Amino acid sequence: MLLEFSVANFLSFRERKTLNLVASSISDYKETNTITSERHTLLKGAIIYGANASGKSNFIRAMSTMKRIVTQSFNQSSIKTLDVTPFLLNTETENSPSYFEVLFEILNVRYRYGFEITNKEVVSEWLFESKKNAEKLLFVREGDGIEVSPSFKEAENLESKTRNNALFLSIIDQFNGVTARRIMNWFDNFITISGLTHENYEMVTFKMLEKEKTAKTLGDFYGTLDLGFDGLSVNKEKFNPKRIPEDAPESLVKLLIKDMEGTFRFKINTLHKKYNKDNVNVDDVEFDMRSQESAGTNKVFNISGPIFDVLQNGGVLVIDELDSSLHPLMTLAITRLFNSEKDNSKNAQLIFTTHDTNLFSYGKYRRDQIYFVEKDKYGASDLYSLVEYREEDGNKVRKDRSFESDYIQGRYGAVPYIGDISKIVSEWQEK
Fold this sequence. Notes:
- The chain is α+β, with helices and mostly antiparallel strands.
- The protein is built from 13 helices and 18 strands.
- Helices cover 29% and strands 27% of the residues.
- The chain starts with a strand and ends with a helix.
């Protein structure tokens, strides 16, 4: 389970900013929206608001970048760059390393792991473990030096095998370190997806539809959302070279055959009832999902696999622009799956960005689950929660406030400043 995620000097985030999923002392929706472990009371997720270009997506990219570097570090060549961009609007940060740190819990053991990197190398890296209260150092890396705790036996004698652009944690994992493997598995269940380019995740949905149990779960979910179809038809076809156009270049044909041989192509059709003149159902008609269903229906289908995968197995799901192309009631239905004891028995956590202000009123989120992102005049993004926000009199925001109305009016910041558009239009029309 995720406790905290922190980032600094990455894209629009100059100073260290932290998303904290340790529940505060407020009592809002405690039974449904929190997870109680032996050591902590955690939140089942967070919702992030902010104006366009405020840095919401950059915060999600920070999460996905950390996961990418952790899971792919070992497989990179010694000359491969790490593909990170620091805060470029300040002379002190443009050539400094980017900072990532995550605090999480596995089987009631808390870990704190992080690193600082440039585009070319790992500058520092650290791992701490806490089985009770005090943290214990497992290893720390500074420049070319790596100090390993005597008690961390699985990391012994691996320091010299670590490249400048590779993480020490990934090296330990490759040599079958038990703790490292446990942490790698946690990152594998730290899933970040985009709500805008969601087509890349449909394969997860296809695989779940192949299994009887999960296929029924997904089917029931689609039915609950009233997407306008009565069922699904899933076809799995083995790659057939004869389907390649005859006029395709020979070099391309060879490349496709090499890359696609032995793979399968999935095709999904939705089933719709056909009626006669007396409105009696006489047959079913199949529609191609991609070309004949709405963008919203396709999005629900594509992201439903990752959603139910994490609900079934536990983990953290991060979605940028969850509400894009979705009706507010669909967004609400998805978020409520996570704030539910019945549907979220594995204590999965959902973090997402949105512009859907209806969730302030109907989403039933705690004040410590609601975050805002706002840029200052120097182009740097700030991240803060509603429970941290202070009114003009210095008091916290009360739970009986109208959060949606207050936010739209700019009470909490993180909204766009829109000038007098009517004046712009009138001046244009006079020209």
